[in-house]
Structure formats: C-alpha cells, structure tokens
Amino acid sequence: MSRLVIVSNRVADLRATTQTGGLAVGLADAVRERGGVWFGWNGERDGVTGGDLHVERIGRVDRVAAPLSAQDVSDYYLGYANSVLWPLFHYRLDLVDYRPAFFAGYRRVNETFARQLLPFLKPDDLIWVHDYHLIPLAGFLRRLGCRQRIGFFLHIPFPPPDLLAASPNHAELVEALLDYDVVGFQTRTDAGNLKLYLGEHASAVQLARNRFSLGERSVVIYRFPIGIDAAGFAAMAREADEDVQIDLMRRRALGRRQIIGIDRLDYSKGLPERMKAFGQLLAQHPELEKSVTFLQIAPPTREEVGAYADIRMELETLAGSINGRFSDFNWTPIRYIRRTVSRRKLAPLLRGSQVGFITPLRDGMNLVAKEYVAAQDPEDPGVLVLSKFAGAAEEMRQALIVNPYDVDGMARRLHRALTMPLKERQRRHAALLDHIARHDARAWLGAFLAALEARDPPRAGRARGRPLAAAEGTSRAPLG
Ligand code: GDG
What confidence score (pLDDT) does residue 471 get? Predict the structure, then answer.
C-alpha cells in the first residue's frame, strides 16, 4: 500500500483521538494507517517563510510544520486565500479585495511549500492536497520533477465560469488544477462548473465523462461529497453533558422548544437572514411567545479581514433588536453565543434541539447539517431546515429545503418544522440518517484514495506538467 502525504493549510494535531471528532481526525487515521507525511503551516505569524521546519515523528508519520512570515500570512492567507478566493468561490464578487501583491504572495508560499515538501517524498507516495489555499502546489511540485500521483480536494464551492472569469487570475488557477491527477469537488454542481469552464475557456479535450486532457496532462474531475463519522457523533450526542442536561430539563419544564444553528461566524453562512426569519416567525405567530428559543453558536474566524468585522456588527445589532422587541423578563428569544463551544457540548445540544436551522447563502457541503441528523433520537427526531445552496442539499432531500434569501419562506418552513407530526419527522429522519451513515467520512476517504490510486502509477523519466504562468497577474494563452 502506498504511503499517504497530506498537505493542508494548517497541519493537524496527529495526537488527537477520534473522541475529538472532526474531519482532520479521519484523515489523521488514514495517514497513520498507511504511514506518510502531514505537511502544513504551523499557524504562527512571526516566522520566516522557507525557514526551519518543525518535524515530529509520530509512529510512521512525519508531521511537518512550516513557518510563514507576517507579510506572507497577510498576502497568502488573509489576502489571496481569504479576501479573494473565499468570497469569489462563494459567489460574493462584491466582497473580493483583489490586489496583485496577494496573488504574488499566494504563489510564493505555494512554491516555498513545494520546495520544503520535496525531500519528504518517496517515489510511490500518494499526495493529497486540500483546499483553496494550495491550488498551485502540484504545479510547483511538477516543476521540481515530482512524478507522484497528486490529488486535490476542494472543500468549498467552485463558481460558474462567468463568476470565475471575473478574477484576473482565473486562467492560471484552472491551469494549476490541471496539474493534478484527480480533482475532487463536494457536489455535481461544483464539478460541473469546472467542466463548463474547460468547455468554454480552455482548449481542453474531454476524453471521457469525467476525464479531460490539456497538452500532456490529463485529469479526472469528480464529486466526492464529504461525510462525517455518523456513528461516533451519535454516540457523543447520547453522552450526558451536565450543563446541557440542566438546560434541557429547564426547557422541558417550561415547555420550550429550541431551534439551533452552529456556524463559524462567516458571511457565507446566511446568519442575518436566519435571525430575521426567526424574528418573522415570532411576529407572525404570537402563540409561540415563550415557547420557542433560537440558539445560534457562531465562533469567530479570520477577524483581521474587514468583511468579518462587518458581519459581526450586523449580527449583534440584529440579535439585540429582535430580543429588544420580543423578550420578556423570563424569556429571551435569541441566545447568541459568539465563542467556541466544546464538541462534547455541541453534540448533545444538537440532540436536544427540535429544529436544526442551517441556511448558508453558499456552502461547499456543511457538516453541521449532517451532525444534526446524526445527533437526533430516532424515536423523537428533530427537523432539519436546510438551505438549497448548501452542498449537503444535493444529498439530503428529506430535509425541509429553503431559499436562504427568502426570509418569509424560511419563517414558514420553521413553523412547519415546529408543527410537523411525529410520523413524518421519523420518516424524514430515518432516510437522512441512512444516507449519512452509508456515506460517511470513511467512505469519502476511501473513494478519493481509490480514484487517485487508479491513475497510472508514476513512471521514471516521464515528463509531467508545465510551468505555471511565469509573469504574475497575466493570463496564459491556452486558457485565456
Ligand atoms: C468547510 C466548508 C465543508 C462549529 N462551531 C464549533 C465547532 N464547529 C464545527 C462543526 C463542524 C465544523 O466545525 C464546521 O464545518 P462546516 O462544514 O459546517 O463548515 P466550514 O468550517 O466552513 O468548513 C464546508 C467543510 O469545509 C468540510 O469539507 O463542509 O462547506 O466551508 O464540524 O461542528 N466545533 C467546536 N466548537 C464550535 O464552537 N468544537
């Protein structure tokens, strides 16, 4: 079995156990099983890009943490990755802050990471690169002579060609994707968008339904919807957490039901629209007064990026205004927690909530939607209200699917969720649970690695890839 080399923006904690849960743990299990390397940024902001690596040997795995300078954290991470690619790929052209220095930093860091990773590679390794921070990595590795199989998985959406083409670097980005052997997306729509781009903008040749070639290179483009450890999460949800139990008992005694949302505090998650919909529900149904609360947990991220400060202000104002309008001395309709809550508490909190309200404006997949279903008591399950623009909606058809821009429509669906008969709740939940249990994190991992392994193994001397665009900020001929 080939070794596995994982590359992600942040290097994971390989000592974490499955108790902690999360995607990184599933990947860590796979790399521990096969032996290999996990390479990524050490997360600090005051290093020297290209400086000394911190290498830790854990069993048969090298955990390699690379430093970055403050300038590169600003240009590569906060800049190109999170002020250009994140908004662009989430269809938010209005929030893109494009600056040529950001793209230069993005290329510089990817090139440095490629040089630093190279000495750790063995000829038969499978290399799996994760997410939008690292799109050009394979191109730089190929230029250094790397002939191993390299796969890429995009955790976030991939926009339609017209939106992508608004980026001055769209041609280089797509060309860089073609240096991979397998490019994986969350949904059919995302994979379809890259295929459409190739059809419209590039002289790529379609060899088969999911296989394209451009010059010497050929790439498989496929969807691999990410899953969760459904059984593990369900077990965690059943474990009593004292604080959550007390809260649940109190709510039961008062006959109060809870609507829950859990999201990183991000403008892509549709949080203001969601709060407005809850406010609308209360305005239209006075009988719900004191009998329903909305708990929104939203740990902050990327606070140095301006758009994140704006969304935080907007939410605080909205929560204050809705609570000011509807609260009574013994009832606060919105409980808004802008902190990280431990996973041990999140799982039982999801279980104790009668509605999972997950309404991103755009989301690659959305794992919370799957976690909500896994956490439910199958005898008396809650109802998932899910945005049609979450990748998860492609699979989770038995949820109540909503348009996250339609505040009135969401309020109506919330009411329907709160009044849904037990039989219907059970029927919908059983179908959703069956799906997420079969398509779990392990299945996702296995499917991606099988696709990568199925590509031709590396052969000595075979020339692979071509250099990325030499001049920064310019489009290359074949894709321009
Ligand atoms: C990206 C894509 C895609 C949330 N708050 C807390 C907390 N969480 C956990 C959730 C869930 C995870 O974080 C969030 O995952 P999502 O999928 O919902 O969203 P992103 O962070 O945007 O992830 C997304 C994902 O990558 C995987 O490919 O699904 O579309 O955007 O597991 O439970 N965990 C803890 N405390 C919190 O306060 N411990």
Answer: 30
